[in-house]
Records
---
Amino acid sequence: RSCSFTGFGTVQSRKVAKSLSRSSVRSRMALKPPKAYSSLQKGALIWDPKPLQVKRIFEALKKGLNEHLEAHQAELDYLSGRHKDTKRNSRLAFYYDLDKQIRSVERYIRKLEFHISKVEELYEAYCIQCRLRDGATNMKQAFSLSPATKASRESLLELYRNVQECTEDMCFIEGALEVHLGEFHVKMKGLVGFARLCPGDQYEVFVRLGRQKWRLKGKIETDDSQTWDEEEKIFIPNLHEKFEIKVTELRGLATVLVGVVTCDSISFFSTKPQAIVVDITELGTIKLQLEVLW
């Protein structure tokens, strides 16, 4: 089965929401269907949760959010120190300007703290449903090996429903967690090919993340500089998909495939821009340089 998680208006998503409301754990969470990004609204949710991948993304996301929190806390401490010095020196205009900056940073810190607590809450609920599903699956296997009776068949049917409900709930929480992943701003920095790149050569780079696509064309100029028709693209992170990068060389009406690679986004959840150098060819004779800002 599949359904769009982004709209949450289908019959299946209403069933999941109803199931969530029955659970005491998620009733305390007060989960609401998250507003989805428009770029994802054509996607389909496959009912196949991947707990190990979700754990990797959660740990990277939490680490990145904590880095942001520490950086802004350090900024707040610095501004607070200047604020005290300025108050003693009675420079009112500068004092009030610092006061505005401090209030702004304090608001952002509170937003970050809420964001972190929400992500932790979602992941905790996800782990609970994962353990419930594993328990129901193990019991279902045990009952399937026992003698077939009316009671065992009824138990198997109930366990099957429990597994299905936990699976749907996990997928719902994955969708809710995905909305909290932020954005990746990907910048094109150019190709590196040493002797492989010659003036006049034209290339096409195709970047895909799930259903999100970025196609751009570039040309090697006579001074060895490069011009590209686009320089930046925003991608919405995905729990299950990797970046797929395909580079082709344009030769008149013909195209020659240079290489296809995949790139995991797990390291992109960082406060600092990440410089990415990807080997497009097996021998690394042509590389693609990207910069990712989260």
---
Amino acid sequence: RGLYLLISSLLQALNGFVLVVTSEGLIFYSSHTIQDYLGFHQTDVMHQSVFELIHTEDQLEFRRNLHWALDPPHTPEGEPSPAGKSLSSSAVTYKLDQLPPENSSFLERSFVCRFRCLLDNSSGFLALNLQGRLKFLHGQNKRSEDGSVLPPQLALFAISTPLQPPSILQIRTKNMIFRTKHKLDFTPLACDAKGKIVLGYTEAELRMCGTGYQFVHAADMLYCAENHVRMMKTGESGLTVFRLLTKDNRWKWVQANARLVYKNGKPEYIVVTQRPLIDEEGGEHLRKRSMHLPFTFATGEALLYQSTHPLPGFPDLFQCKGKPSKSKKPSCSHVGCSQKNGIDPRSLLGAVIRQDKAVY
């Protein structure tokens, strides 16, 4: 355990993450700190093609650096690019007598590639400097077409660091990235330790009020719902910046990316990776946000959020409330009022009605 804590501390202190990529472009290993820079969880990328993460204009450069002589086999004209071909077809198998010694400077690598980044809403990519070397990856027990065991093959062992040094603010917020788990309707199920520090709730307090939208600022609900619908269709929400209600009745800006987790081919739950923002960052995102209805009631998507209340003449959202509650946690006492008005408490309108007026 002591060794694990030491390695974890070293990775956190490192301005970057560790990446091991096989000769055919499979990510054999990534340190968990990849999430701090690209937004992907370690399990999202392990054993996946690295070319799925790399900008199309940089894929050839990355493939060159996987070859010991920087000269990978050329793709004949008219055939798919290396990233689009099967991984096995782009692999290069070496005999040990064809390679320079493992400590040779020919195997050292230092190059720049742009990687997909869920934490960057400007270009969607982050330029990384990969510095390391090609080394033999042992214990793979791969076999050739005739069934014979192949010798260990070269893989890229590299430290990936952002090309632009991080600001003090980025360093501070990087260490507070947290994850939450939700049902498919966004009802909270679990929250990690950092999330409990940022938001102030216990898991029991997050679960007891039902819909997760009750913790979302009313002005951000339709925006979050739009990305919720996108995630249900595509598996990923994309970058979403909104305000969450903390236990001390304050609004905390977060930058989030949600993805579906599947079991037996069916979506089972949602995992959300969230990074706290300062108010100035959140306000800037709000000014840039396009102010349009994210969906029309004609498409039927809106019925996911409210199917029983007529559109004309929305009631005063807080007409069910008496004096503002002094409780420091979201009030759950207005479910009955919502149901009497014919409003589904799980809908967006129901979530707003159940919020304490005092928080606004």
---
Amino acid sequence: LSGLDPAQPYFQGTPIEVRLDKSDADFVDIIHTDSAPTIPNLGFGMSPALGHIDFYPNGGKQMPGCGKNPVSQIVDLDGIWEGTRDFVACNHLRSYKYYSDSIIYPDGFQGYPCASYDNFEAGNCFPCPKDGCPNMGHFADKFKEKINSNFLKLYLNTAEAKDFPLWRYKVTVTLSGRSKLKGYVNIALYGTGGNTRQHQVIEGTLKPANTYTSFIDVEANIGKVTKVKFLWNNNWINPTFPKLGAATITVQSGING
């Protein structure tokens, strides 16, 4: 039984006979996408963990792409009716959109077991444990036999628009060069399963010999890494033409470590 952002008004805090609960089926998985308090945030979804496993994409409260300005959202690619509906309840409706995308991407939407979304964002729950990470959505039940805790809270990030699944990687870069400068570093990953666009991994002061670590959520499961593209920019014209490179770049997959 899959709960797609179970309703908060009139249900949160009620006995289990009234609301959705893990006693309702052999396996209950939940996707929370609009769990901010109803007052003052107008959150339609329930925040407590209810199922055998509970997914909190993007923290479960505010979904990427739902903060678009009203006009662009109402006159959307999907048409005026869908755009208007998304404007009124965008976060709440993301749950079924993630679910439908999960059917097309069986290996997508890995949920990382973690104490909180802040811990997940800080990289404290990376990579997946040895039993793996459950996949949010249609294939969540593949994890049914591996659950050994009372409630399992799982966190992940999604894209702003279709296609929604993202795959998490840890990138560690050691810089090389002669002098420190300000700017940013972008990385693109290439692999046997696909390639990614450029993702920013460092911004600010860039010091040669220093090592920087970043977590990136990319739009492809790249499989075995075959190439990494390194690009840096200092945002302004420097007459001394400084040079900066990467001594080493390490890429770690969240799926298998």
